[in-house]
TrEMBL record:
Origin: domain of life: Bacteria
Entry-linked Pfam families: DUF815
Species of the source: Sphingobium boeckii
Coiled coil: none
InterPro entries (alphabetical): DUF815, P-loop_NTPase
Protein's UniProt name: ATPase
Length: 271
C-alpha cells in the first residue's frame, strides 16, 4: 500500500468521524446544558421570579441562602430536593440561580440530563478552573438500583477521586426521598434488609441540604392561585380554581400555574 493510499484512507476516516463538540464559553452565559462531551449554552434562561414560588417558604429560604454562599465562593451544600410532583422543586433551583444573578452573583446553571450522570467527571474537568460558580442541576433523578451510576454519584458527593470542584455544587430533584428504588425483594442482598436500606440511604445522606416538598392542601393551593392572579392582574373565581384542580386530580404549584396560564389565555394575555 502506497503513501497515497494511506493518505486517502486517513482522509476518508476523518470525514466519517463526528466533528468535535463545540464548547460554549463557560464564563459567557447564564445557563448551559452538558451534552456529555461539551457545554452548550442554553437557548433561553428565563426562570420564574423566586417570589412567585409560594407555599414552600422554608425550602425557598434554604436554597436561596445556599446559592448565595456558592456564588460568593463560601462553603455551600450539595442539595437534594425530594417529594411530591409539581411542588416547585425544579423551578426553585432555576429561580434561586436567577435571583442570585440578579443580585450580582456570578453563578451559572448547568443542566445535566439523567443519562449523562456517568460523564460528570468530564464536566468537572471543564469547569474546575473557571472563575465563577456553577449550580449543577440533575432533574427528576431516580435509579432503579445501586448500580454504577449511583455509586459514581455517591463518590462524587463524598469527595472521592472524581469529586466535584470547589466552584460547583450538585442540585438534584427526585420524587424519591432516597433517590433509588425501594424494591428490597429484588435485591440479592435482601437477606439482610438493614444493609440494603443503609446502602440506599448512603447516597441521599451525601447531600448536605435535603429538603422535602409535600402535597399542598386546599388553602395553600388557592394561595398560590391568588399570588399568580394578583401579580399578573387576572380575575379569578376560587370555585373555578378548585374545579380546575379537581379535574386534574391534584393540587400543586404546577396545577396552580397551569390555571393561571388558562386565566391569561381567557383574558387574551401572555404570561
Amino acid at each position: 500500500m502506497t503513501d497515497t493510499d494511506l493518505a486517502r484512507i486517513a482522509a476518508a476516516l476523518e470525514r466519517l468521524a463526528p466533528p468535535p463538540a463545540i464548547q460554549a464559553d463557560a464564563q459567557a452565559h447564564a445557563a448551559y446544558v452538558w451534552r456529555g462531551d461539551g457545554l452548550a449554552a442554553a437557548r433561553a434562561f428565563d426562570p420564574m421570579p423566586i417570589a412567585l414560588l409560594t407555599g414552600v417558604d422554608l425550602q425557598k429560604r434554604a436554597v436561596l441562602e445556599n446559592t448565595r454562599r456558592l456564588a460568593a465562593g463560601n462553603a455551600a451544600h450539595d442539595v437534594l430536593l425530594w417529594g411530591a410532583r409539581g411542588m416547585g422543586k425544579s423551578a426553585m433551583v432555576k429561580s434561586a440561580v436567577g435571583a442570585v444573578r440578579g443580585e450580582g452573583g456570578d453563578i451559572a446553571l448547568v443542566e445535566v440530563p439523567e443519562d449523562r450522570v456517568a460523564s460528570l467527571p468530564g464536566l468537572f474537568a471543564a469547569i474546575a478552573d473557571v472563575p465563577r460558580a456553577f449550580a449543577i442541576f440533575i432533574d427528576d433523578l431516580g435509579f432503579d438500583d445501586n448500580g454504577g451510576e449511583a455509586r459514581l454519584l455517591r463518590s462524587v458527593l463524598e469527595g472521592g477521586a472524581e469529586a466535584r470542584p470547589a466552584n460547583a455544587r450538585i442540585h438534584v430533584t427526585s420524587n424519591r426521598r432516597h433517590i433509588v428504588a425501594r424494591a428490597m425483594e429484588e435485591q440479592q442482598s435482601a437477606i439482610n434488609p438493614r444493609d440494603v436500606i443503609d446502602d440506599r440511604m448512603a447516597l441521599a445522606d451525601r447531600f448536605g441540604l435535603s429538603l422535602g416538598f409535600h402535597n399542598c392542601d386546599q388553602d395553600a393551593y388557592l394561595a398560590m392561585v391568588e399570588t399568580y392572579a394578583r401579580i399578573h392582574d387576572l380575575p379569578y373565581d376560587p370555585a373555578d380554581a378548585l374545579l380546575w384542580s379537581q379535574q386534574r386530580g391534584s393540587r400543586s404549584g404546577r396545577v396552580a400555574w397551569h390555571y393561571a396560564n388558562e386565566l391569561a389565555g381567557r383574558a387574551g394575555k401572555r404570561l
